[in-house]
Write a structure and sequence with these properties.
Keywords: Cytoplasm, GTP-binding, Hydrolase, Nucleotide-binding, Ribonucleoprotein, RNA-binding, Signal recognition particle. This protein is of the alpha/beta class. The chain is built from 21 helices and 8 strands. It is flat and about 70 Å long. Bound molecules: guanosine-5'-diphosphate.
């Protein structure tokens, strides 16, 4: 996420390296370079200009602080200003209604339907809500079908009226139905168009008027850069929405949309979406995003994600198995599934300070586990439970079944055995033994 910008800003800070103090000249040069970096990241020109003007003013005003090196001072200033530019603090959504009504708007392909389902999943699993999804895109049967499939996947009801072409009455009926069934949040997915279109705007406006939503969330594809900002402005002029959802931040986005939207539209980014899976949705934290942009990592989000996935009961069982040396390939598969649930691997790694940059040109994706999973899934249940059964012919069969090679199967088995030994030593009070082994 935003690796190029991170790199460019780091280069800008280098201008001040070795400088003993902040001067008009070195600040002007640094600030000019930061502005260039922002514009290359597709940040709106006016936003970049006023951002760097502020930095310059503040940097010169802080000249008294001689204890801090100019380079460090500049990083801190840019960090705080970036966080402020993106809104300062995280903003919640309004869930006070009964039911609370959330209207989702945006262009076609921006990720509305996917986000609607992710939001339902988030509200259900993290906020203890009972959401209902409403298929309001009456023009594309595929969109209704897509929402139904996602609803089934996350076990959330999807309200539709087959053959109806009237999204206003669908929305009204959905709310009645939700009240009847005790559903406390109604999420209405609306129809988009490929570009701003008068009819689409009128339709969303009339749904807004009919259902008075608690929240209108505008969904936008962050890969579209400045277009995203312009579209946000047009939607906001018509709908006066409450917040923005930035999607596809897992892609090769430069950062312009994330950095400019708040300043141009004056509405907060509330969520960011980083993948197609239901779990890849995050509440937007401007300060954490500023950390990440400056290559400082985002340990807080990483720890939160790990905590969300941590299942105490399962961890206890696992520990018992490890101590008894019963950790098997089924447990291994479970562990991989847990890691994958945390989201995109490269993004996760990027949250560790310094690691994001190191991995910039390394291609890690969710396929990293693919061959391991294929190998384990080609084992029989007995083999998974008892890896010591694995003789030559079994290994050959597994390699063929998984579309891998005997070398890969052998490597996995060896790694698994080594891991098992290590786990047993560490967890079974064998820390001394482990220490001895490591010192050998
Ligand atoms: P809609 O037309 O606005 O409802 O958009 P969809 O929800 O159908 O999304 C369009 C495409 O973008 C689909 O293929 C989604 O799987 C994909 N998509 C949505 N959100 C994300 C995201 O955060 N990251 C990535 N990589 N793909 C996404």
């Amino acid at each position: 996420m935003f690796e190029n910008l991170t790199d460019r800003l780091e280069r800008s800070f280098k201008i001040l390296k070795g400088e003993g103090k902040i001067t008009e000249i070195n600040v002007a040069e640094t600030v000019k370079d930061i502005r260039k970096a922002l514009i290359e990241a597709d940040v709106n020109y006016k936003v970049a200009k006023s951002f760097t003007d502020d930095i310059k003013r503040k940097a010169l005003g802080m000249n008294v602080l001689t204890a801090v090196k100019p380079g460090q001072l500049m990083v801190k200033l840019v960090h705080d200003e970036l966080a402020a530019l993106m809104g300062g603090k995280a903003e919640d959504i309004d869930l006070s209604g009964n039911p609370s009504v959330i209207l989702i708007a945006g262009l076609q392909g921006s990720g509305k339907t996917t986000f609607s389902a992710k939001l339902a999943n988030y509200l259900k699993s993290k906020k203890g809500k009972h959401p209902m999804l409403v298929a309001g895109d009456v023009y594309r049967p595929a969109a209704i079908e897509q929402l139904k499939v996602l609803g089934e996947q996350i076990n959330v009801p999807v309200f539709t009226i087959p053959d109806s072409k009237d999204p206003v009455s669908i929305a009204k009926d959905a709310i009645k139905e939700a009240k009847k069934n005790g559903q406390d949040v109604v999420i209405i997915d609306t129809a988009g168009r490929l570009a701003i279109d008068e009819e689409m705007m009128k339709e969303v406006e009339s749904i807004k008027k009919a259902v008075s939503p608690n929240e209108i969330l505008f969904v936008v594809d962050s890969m579209t850069g400045q277009d995203a900002v312009n579209t946000a402005k047009e939607f906001n002029d018509r709908l006066d929405f409450n917040g923005v959802v930035l999607t596809k931040l897992d892609g090769d986005t430069r950062g312009g949309a994330a950095l400019s939207i708040r300043a141009v539209v004056d509405k907060p980014i509330k969520f960011v979406s980083t993948g197609e899976k239901m779990e890849t949705l995050d509440v937007f934290h401007p300060d954490r995003m500023a950390d990440r942009i400056l290559g400082m990592g985002d340990i807080v989000s990483l720890v939160e994600k790990a905590q969300e996935q941590y299942d105490e009961e399962q961890a206890r069982k696992l520990h018992k198995k490890i101590v008894k040396n019963q950790f098997n390939f089924n447990d291994f598969l479970d562990q991989i599934a847990q890691i994958k649930k945390m989201g995109n691997l490269k993004d996760l790694a990027g949250m560790i300070p310094g690691v994001g940059k190191a991995l910039k040109n390394v291609d890690i994706d969710d396929d990293a586990f693919k061959s391991i999973e294929a190998i384990i899934k080609s084992m029989t249940p007995e083999e998974r439970e008892n890896p010591s059964l694995m003789n030559g012919s079994r290994r050959k069969r597994i390699a063929e079944g998984s579309g891998t090679s005997i070398v890969e199967v052998n490597r996995l088995l060896k790694q698994f055995e080594d891991m098992r030994k290590l786990m047993k030593m560490v967890s079974g009070g064998g820390a001394k033994k482990f220490g001895r082994m490591m010192n050998q």
